[in-house]
Amino acid sequence: MRYIKRVLALIAILIAVPVAALWIIPEDRILSALESRVEAATGRAVRFEGGVSPSLYPQLGLTTGPVEIENASWSDAGPILRAEKLHVALDPIALLRGKIAIEDVSADTPQVILETAEDGAVNWDFFTNQSEARQDSTPQAQKETDAEPLNISLRNLSLTDAAIRFVDRQNGQTVEILDLDVSVQAPDAQGPTDFSITFTRGQGPIVLSGQLGRTETFLLGNESPVTAQMTAAGSTLSFSGSATLSGVASGEISADIRETKSLLTAIGLPGVDIPAGFGRKGTLSATLNYGPEARAELGNISAKLDETILTGALAADFAGTPTITGAIASPNIDLTSLASSSDTPSESSSRNTASGWPTTPIDASALSALNADILFSAERFAVPGVALSGLESQLTIDNARAVLNLTQAQGFGGQFSGKVIANNRSGFSSSASFTARAVQLETLLDQTIGYDRLVGSADAEFSVLGSGASIDRLMRSLRGEGRLSVPSGELIGVAIADLILNQGEGGGRTVFSELGASFQIQDGVLSNSDLKANLPAAQLAGQGKVDIGDQALDYTLTPRLSEARQGNDLVFPVIITGSWSSPKIRPDLEAAIAESFQSEIEEQKKALESRAKNAVAKEVQKQLGVEATEGQSIEDAVTDKLKNDVIKGLGDLFK
Which pairing describes strands 46-48 and 224-232: parallel, antiparallel, or unpaired? Predict the structure, then answer.
């Protein structure tokens, strides 16, 4: 029992001595020790407000009042860190020796400012500057400094209810993250540092955890192994490689996105509905290299966005306006779900033509968000109404002007090449120029503008330009030109032969060959005056207008049957008017009679004139008692009669 009492007394002494030391060691010495430790680690001045008070639970240590660590000399944003309280846990064994050794540090409601200057300098680069200072000092100073390594050991650093503000003076952006909990364990400066950061931006927590392989190496600005993982809303993003304190990094990244909408909500972007095919869920793996000039390179990209597979390499420069370059390829990109699942292409086209073009304002602000030069290829590419294969293209974006250069593509049974430009520098405008070879017109026109009455394989060239704040304004402003040739085809909805034979006013179809035409577009109205085609036993000509803005037709087709009437041509114009979704077709009988029977009309006219003259002459002869002699016209006979009567009257006057 006596030995037990002695052991308990010894334990009490071991506990009491360090506790008493907290009251015995002067307060200013404790504050001085804390300041020197922090200043040695950061190279920044530290200021404590108020005194310190000892604490026994949960750890032996002390608590300070408000504390501030000064910012970089070039910053005017206030202290880099300010906390309401600082809790410091001390090593009791060191206290027995009369020394102060810090084990754990925790801060209440700290506010942290992390800045990037306009020249790229960062305010958190504490240790690199100290290392450079040692390298620039005299040999004697280096010897003295080298004898004092960083010797940083921190069993645990914790920040509770923290706020971090990121300020980037290069691009003028500021991001603030609130309600942050940070835990860092660095028991040995030569060994690893484990960290865990938990915060909330939207719905649900975001957890960032990982490890620095070599703490002191990293803090001195050199490369250290790094692993990091972010989890949120069931999704995971990971990095494994190496990094430096200045932000240079290289390694491998991967992502497993269970639901993109939930992830975006978690990081503070609620309400974003990702269209199917653009990545409602997905996976990604790639190599990453991030350089000191804010340039990131992704290589060996392998991504799956929904069912779309992408491979390639990209590079992004973030200094100023982000610029993306690289090449992406895919075996199949299917974006047909962009249209309402309840609509077929024909239903969508019919409704569109019935209600006119959309008047919703075009939002092209994304063109100002970045610059780009990307090569893109796809074995198959599908959007609502359009399916292409063998697509090779290049997209460039420069100062809110995008150019999509389509090198080649197959679709609608033919081949395409061309260019589309969207310009949002001073109001929205767009232009397109395309060449098509052997394209099936019925499919092309039906799936793009809802017109399915022209069948045939066509070659075409066109260029158009328009401007406006909506699709409706854009269509009404179109101007350009083009040409079309169709070796053979059919016009559905009108049987010209039946109309010529007066067997109906519509329906049926007209077979043609060697169709050719050119057109001009001005203010959204297409004009054509040289359409020609061969029909069975006839030739077809056409002229008129297609009002693209109002989706209306005013066109005349004129078939000519050669020598159909005893060696004379038969001409029978057909007028097509109304909306292009429901056109009205009728024969132009007045023009048909005028052109087909012109010679007969002239002959009948002359005959009527002759009969009228003869009747008038007979009546005159009867009334005047004049008879024309042989070879004399009735006009001459009347003239002679009047002459003789006048002479006779004058003679009688002078008798």
Answer: unpaired
pLDDT tens digit sequence for 340-372 = 444 444 444 444 545 688 899 988 888 888 899
279-334 pLDDT, tens per residue?
A: 889 999 999 999 877 789 999 999 999 888 999 999 999 877 889 999 999 999 88
Overall average pLDDT of the 482-497 stretch: 82
157-194 burial, b at 16+ Cβ within 10 Å, e below that, comes to: bbbbebbbbebbbeeeeeeebeebbbbbbbeebeebbe
- Using an 8 Å Cβ cutoff, are 80 and 123 in contact? yes
Who's near 133: CB < 8 A, 6+ residues apart?
Answer: none
> Cα separation of 163 and 180, whole Å?
6
What pLDDT is attached to residue 97?
A: 59
Question: 556 with 592: CB under 8 angstroms?
Answer: no
Name 123's Cβ contacts closer than 8 Å, sequence gap at least 6. Answer: 71, 72, 74, 75, 80, 113, 114, 115, 117
Q: Taking the alpha carbons of 120, 126, 131, 137 in that order, is the dihedral positive or negative? A: positive
- Read off the pLDDT of residues 244-273 as tens digits, 9 standing for 90 and up: 887 899 999 999 999 988 888 888 778 777
Angle between helices 634-653 and 598-624 (to 10 degrees): 30
**CA distance linking residue 331 with residue 389, whole number of Å:** 10
Extended beta strands in 169-281, E state: 173-186, 193-199, 206-212, 224-232, 235-243, 249-257
Cis peptide bond upstream of 225, omega within 30: no
Give the DSSP H or E segment for 147. none
With bands split at pLDDT 50, 70 and 90, how would you rate the model's confidence at 553? very high
Tell me the residue type at 525. V
Q: In the structure encoding, which two tokens stand for residue 112, read together?
A: 């942290």
- Residue 476 phi, psi (nearest 5): -80, -10
Please compute the mean of the pLDDT values over residues 637-651 and round it to a whole number: 53
Q: Which phi and psi (to 5°) does residue 78 adopt?
A: 95, -175
